[in-house]
Amino acid sequence: MYQPKAEDKFTFGLWTIGNVGRDPFGAPVRGELSPAEIVRILGEVGAWGVNFHDNDLVPIDASPAEADKIKAEFKKALDDTGVVVPMATTNLFYDPVFRDGAFTSNDPKVRAYARQKTMRAMDLGAEFGAKVYVFWGGREGTETDAGKSALDAGKWFREALNFLCEYNIDQDYGYKFALEAKPNEPRGDIYLPTTGAMLGFITTLDHPEMVGVNPEVAHETMAGLNFMHAVAQAWDAGKLFHIDLNDQKIGRYDQDFRFGAENIKQSFFLVKFLEDVGYSSSRHFDAHAYRPADLADVKEFAKGCMRTYLILKEKAQQFKEDAEIQELLAEITADDGSMAPFFGKYSADKAKALKAHTFDRAAMAQRGQPYEKLDQLVFELLMGVR
Ligand code: GLT
Ligand code: MN
Ligand code: MN
Question: Is the CB of residue 220 below 6 angstroms from any atom belonging to ligand 1?
Answer without folding.
Answer: no
